Each structure stands twice: as C-alpha cells, then as structure tokens.
Amino acid sequence: MRTDTTLAIRRSDYTEPNYLVETVELGFDLDPTDTRVAARLTLRHNPDGRANDIVLVGDDSLELVQLRMNGKPLSRRAYRLADNELRIPNAPEEAVLEIETALKPEANTSLMGLYVSNGNFFTQCEAEGFRKITFFPDRPDVMAKYKVMLRANREQYPVLLSNGNLIEEGDLGDGRHYALWEDPFRKPSYLFALVAGKLVCQEERCALADGREALLQVWVEEGNLDKTQHAMESLKNSIRWDEERFGLELDLDRFMIVAVGDFNMGAMENKGLNIFNTKYVLANPRIATDSDYANIEAVVGHEYFHNWTGNRVTCRDWFQLSLKEGLTVFRDQEFSADMVGTDSGRAVKRIDDVRVLRQAQFPEDAGPMAHPVRPDSYLEINNFYTVTIYEKGSEVVRMYQTLLGREGFRKGMDLYFERHDGQAVTCDDFRAAMADANGRDLTQFERWYSQAGTPRVRAETRYDDASRIYEITLSQSCPPTPGQKTKLPFHIPVKIGLLDAQGRDLPLVFEGDLSEAPTTRVLELTEASQTFRFTGIFGEPVPSLLRDFSAPVILEYDYSDDDLAFLMAHDSDPFNRWEAGQRLATRHLLALTRAVQESRPLEEAAPGVATFIESLRAILNDTTLDAAFREVALTLPSEGVLAEEMDVIDPQAIHAARQYLRRMLARTLRNDLVAACNLNATTGAYSPDAASAGKRGLKNVALLYLAELDDTDSHAMTQAQYDRADNMTDRIAALMGLVNSSAPGKADALERFYTEFEGEALVIDKWFSLQASARTTHVPDVRRLMKHEAFNLKNPNRARSLIFSFCNANPARFHAPDGSGYEYWAEQVIALNAINPQVAARLARTMDRWRKYDRLLAQLMKKALQRVAEAPKLSKDVLEVVTKALADN
C-alpha cells in the first residue's frame, strides 16, 4: 500500500470546520476498567463552513452510551456513526450536544487519550488523543473554553487535576470526592489534560513581573519529592527569562508539572498542566548526570514557552506543526544558552544543537521520509513529530533572527502576538509578522517551509593582490526528495569572516560601500549563484564561512589541511573553530575507512593524522578555553555522521577506522589525558552548573580515551573513578569505560550498579542503554537482556533504553553481516505495533535509509522491511514508515 492514495491527508484539502465549539463541559467518573465521560458542547454554525452537518470524530475504543441535542435524545436515525465519525446532518445554527461515552483506561496501552500508569490516571491528547475520550471535532482550529468536573475514589485518587484554575472541590459522601477546574482561555482539544492518583508535590509561590503571584507545583509519585528541585528552579528561570527576553508573562494563577513513567514523548504543554516523562523532571546528584540536568532545564523551558507559542497562538492544522514546535525549540535553545551565560558556553550549546541536526535531521532530509518543515501530506500525524519539524524548524526560525537581528526578531514576535493571540494560524502568518514588523520582503523565505532536503552551498574564492579585492562566489543547489524533483533557490543567510596571516579578523568592506566595516557579515544568498566582493584586503585571507552555522546547509569549500589547522587555532568564531577540527577529523576518518575496506595498512592511510592529533593536544592543554569547549573539540565525529559522508555505507569499516583513531589519539596523548583527568577533578558538593559540568565533561572524555588503551593502568584508573564517584556523571562515564573494555571488574561493576539502583527506573534505563550500545554487545546479548526481570516492553522508556539503543546507537553490531540485527528489529517493531503504534513507528525509522548500504546488507534490510509490511493488523503509524521506505521514489 502506498501513502499517496486517498488515505493520505493533504494540506491543500483544508476546509473550515462546519461548526465551532464555544464551551466544553466535561464530567469524568474515573474507574480503571470503566470510566464514564459526560460531555456538553455548545456549538454554533461556522459561516465559513461548507454544510450544516455537525462532524465529530471518535476512536474504535470508545463506546457511545448516549447522545442528546438541545435537551432531546437523538435516535439512531438522526445521526450516522461509521469509521469513527459521528455525523449529525441538517443540524440547527446553534446546538447544545450532550455525549456520554465509556472507556477502559487500564487497557489503553497506546498511552494516547486517557490511560493508567502505576495506578494513576493520565492523559495525552496531542495530536489526536482527545477522540479516544469523547466524540469531538478533534482538530487544532476548533478552540473553546473548558470546565472539567473530576469524580473518583478519594483513597485511591486523592489528587484530581485538570487545566486552568481550581474552582471547587469537596466530598461526595460515598467514599468519593470531586474537583472542578476551569480554564479561562480558549484552547484546542489537544491541550486538554487530566491527572488523578496518589501524588505529592513541591510547591512555591512565584512573583511575576506585573505584581501578581502564581502558585507553581511539581507533582510526582511518593518517594520522588527529593528529585524535583531542579525542575522547579528551571520553571522559575523559564518564567523570568520569557518575561525579560520576549515580554511574555504567565497568564494563569497556577502552573503545574506532573511526572509520569509511562509516556510516549518527552513532555506535553497542556495549558497550565504540563505532563512530563519522568526523565525530564526527576534529578538529584545520585541518579542524574550533567546531561540530565541540562535536558530537564531545556524541556521544562520548552513546555513552559509553549504557553504562548503553541497555546495562546496555536496551529490552524497539523501541517503547521513547526509553527509551534520549531519556534519553541528555538526559544528553548536560546534560553539554555542564556542560562550558561558565557560566549563560549553559548557556542557549546550551539555546537550541541548542530550535532543533533547533522546526526538526525540531515539523514532524514536525504531519506524516504524527507518532508518539508510544513508537510504537504501525511497518513499518520504522529509520524511527523520529527527532527525536521523540530530541529530544522528551529533553524528556520533562527534564520529570521540572523537576517533581522535580535531587535528585529523581537519586533516580529510582538506583532505576531498582537495580531494572533487566541487564534489558530499558519506558518505564513508568522512569516508575515516578521516581514511586516521589519519592512522586509520575505516572500522567497517561504521556500524553507515548502521545500524538503538539505541545501548545499558551494563557496569559491579569488584574491586579486593588485586591487586588494577578495571575491567569494556562493552557489546553491538542493537534491531531489520524494515528490520534489526540482528545487527553487532558497533565501540563505551565510555569515562570514576573513582572517589575516596572524589569525586576526579583517574589516569587511563591500565594494563601493563606505559604511561601517564589521568583522562578521551576513551574506544573503538568494540566487543560484552570487558573487560578493570585499575591498581593502591586504594579503590573501583564510575565509571563515557559515559562522555560527547561520543556515541548515551543507557547506562545500576546498579548505586545505593547513587552512583547517589554522582555523582550529585562530578562528574567533568558536563554532567554526570546532567545525574546522571536525572537518579535519572527518577527512582522516574517511581515509582510514577506505583503507579498512581495501585491507591496506592504516598507519599509511592518513599521513596528516599526527599533525591533527598535535592540534588536539594544543586545544586540550589550552586552559584559556572553557573545559566544555575543549570537550566538544576532542570528540570525534560520530559513526552516523561519517556514514552520511559515504556514497555506500559500510558500518564495520567506519567503526574500525574510528576505533583506530581513538586508540591512536589515546596512545599519543596519554600523559596529557591523564593530566586532564587530574586537573579537572571537581571537589566539594556536586553542582550541575556549567563550569563544573564542563570540567567533568573534559575529564570524562579524557578518561574514555584512556580506556581505549584497554591495559592494566587504564583499567585501574577507570575502576578507581567508578569506586569513588559521588555523582552519576562520573559513575556512568567510568562504567562505560569498563563495559567497553576487557577489564576483569566490569561484570562485577554492572551487577553492583544494578543492585544499588534497582529501585530507580531512570537509572536502570541507563544500565540497559549502556549495555545495548556497548561494542561487545551482539543480538543474543540484547535478547538475554530482554528477559531480565526489570525489562518491560510496554514502558516506552525501557523499550527505548534497550531496543532503540541497540538498533540506533550500536551500528557496527546492529548491522551484523548475517542480518541478525535486522531480524531482531523486525520482531520488535511487530511486537511494539500491537502495544504502542507510535513507539513502534519510531523504531521502524531505523531502517528507512536501507538503500544507502552495501548490496548484501541492503538486501537483508529490505527483507526485514517486507516482513514488517506484511505483518497482520499493522497500524497506520508503522505502515506509513515501511511503505515509504520500500517505495520507488
């Protein structure tokens, strides 16, 4: 089956809803096996609608108990219910619809709609989960005010939460109690939420910029209250940052975060009641790493920032998803960078974000699931919560700020909210606000939303010594993607600088321009090819191109090894200083990979490696650089990034080449790495602040290089760190070093780790993930781990920690030549499809680039994909992924 059939939903087919919903009143009688939901909807006909039919959607798990309109029961002849659509033809201009439904939350393993986790009730309604609760026009452009009554057994469910403000609560006299909540703001149904169960909370009152005071609460299960302080601090920092950076205030009297262990996503921005995966809430030094602390801050910020970019202004339809997600990712990235506070800290954050883009989004752009930031069609909307929508969408928003400047971007944001507060709008509306607020024509910029693929920008330079003119010619192209064979030129901001022979930034004067001469300029590439000329350049410079990664493109320029080493040592743009090192490393690693494939001696394959390692030595020992920057500079390109540089991927050769370079680096820099470990040891109480985290990061990257030596000294050093570690960052790094070595104590360390942390679900996730991604792990080892008492396929975090880690983070073992990894993958996709289609579809994405592998591997991968495609009762989620992967595009 193909996804270009009538089953596909297309953006071009958008029509206004026939009826708008003014108010929604919901009554829940909560029971795990038989929950009853009473809904009262006040509707009025939409003058822009096509017909007088009220159209509601439901789910096949729903039982319709009763249906009334304007106080009268509707007979079966008065409505049609088929294919999960409830249609009432010839409805009046205004109607009050009363609907009673019955559902079984305990049996809902999809974790969409209303479900039970560890005895508590939770909801997840984005994108189309509300239809699993009641029949409703479940689309984002239908916005209404909600009032919600929750009734449940007091002893089993003492806490009853929903969106907005608590209006009333009390006892019902039969062992049950109630709580009445009201949200004063109109919202789409995907932002509805409820939580009920045995929970405890940390709460604080927070003074807002306008003089009001808001109640902030972080709700968790009993026993986790000591892990909520960082989430609370992150929430308070998010509130202050949004007030100061964008003038946006918290608009409710209270704001709640709730943590749940069974959750498909990272978190959900339901208005005033954000539901989070425990992974992005719970932290203390015993269980959380520095990365966990940083991720919690970022995700708490992301969901809070949605209160305006997503909630107050939402999407007209799901094709506009990046309108809220790309914009809010940009906001959380800026927030995290500002929380670090230093220029180099911001640069490290930028590097981290670009690494994610290159490792995940660039491959998506080059594969069968490639789609524009604003897609044109989909079969299952859950499949479009992708790195293109989020991370590339964020880069598109960042380009507005690059083109317009920080003040111009803020002007555009202000106009956007002034025009559209309380509305469901489109990506074009956001672009129009940016353009109109700054008097700019951004018509061509729309192509970033409508064209898929990663543009390539080719740079060529020419220096004329006589005229002192330096020319940069930029040309752009974009490869074909499914459904888009040809691409028009994008509007690409290319930020550049020029360095003289001493490594100093030169003033950049455009030919014929007598205005200011900054040392960094943004060149606007809007044509297929353009030439930019700079005057007054004394001596041929070295160009620093695409500074701060000013556009999500692949830059092609014929840098020599000497040029790259020069930029590594001197570039004032920290991103490009790191980038130069990555280009050099990639160049050497690909040469080594070819040597592995051709069975040539690796010692002769990359003659410049020794010079490259000396450049790394200089960075490692340069204490004027932040430790965090030195850590990322010492980290080699991942196997996934290297794979994208090859026409035909050879996972075994890539792995062998990368391991060879890691060991060579460890041998050459052994004394320097030991010194780095000693000099960057942190003392005193653990703190996740940027400086301390940076020192631990540098120390641990040095330790893991030393572990590659796999000798008695490195075993002892790694074991000693594990034994004395007083925080999870140092402990998990040491355990990683042990697990990837032949150290005699590694089995004991794994067992001790499990015994000490078996009551901490998030830590056991790390335990599974560490083993799944270890280079000594093969398919039989993963199958054995699946039989462990702590493994539970129904829990998304646990499935991701083991199955996803093996399939996605252990390429050399997953792509075993005998195809055993692919057989395992197919089994798990089929098993997860029956439990949780959304999680299954994400695992299915592992194989969508199968055509790029060597012929024998590709044949085995195709066979596994076909096995999944032919499985019975395949969900739309998985069907869309595998059929697109197998289709001839």
Strand sequence of the main sheet, in spatial order? 6-5-9-3-2-12-15-14
Known CATH architecture of the largest domain:
Sandwich
What structural class results from the helix and strand content? Answer: alpha+beta
Helix content estimate: 40-55%
Query: Count of DSSP E strands?
Result: 32
User: Mind summarizing the main beta sheet?
Assistant: 8 strands, mixed
The best one-word shape is globular
Radius of gyration, in Å, reads 28 Å
Q: Which ranges are low-confidence, i.e. pLDDT below 50, for 5 or more consecutive residues? A: 1-6
Mean pLDDT: 97
Portion in beta strands: 15-25%
At CATH level 3, the topology of the largest domain is: Immunoglobulin-like
Superfamily (CATH H level) name of the largest domain: tricorn interacting facor f3 domain
EC number: 3.4.11.2
Keywords: Aminopeptidase, Hydrolase, Metal-binding, Metalloprotease, Protease, Zinc
Domain Peptidase M1 alanyl aminopeptidase Ig-like fold: 453-558
Pfam family, one: Peptidase_M1
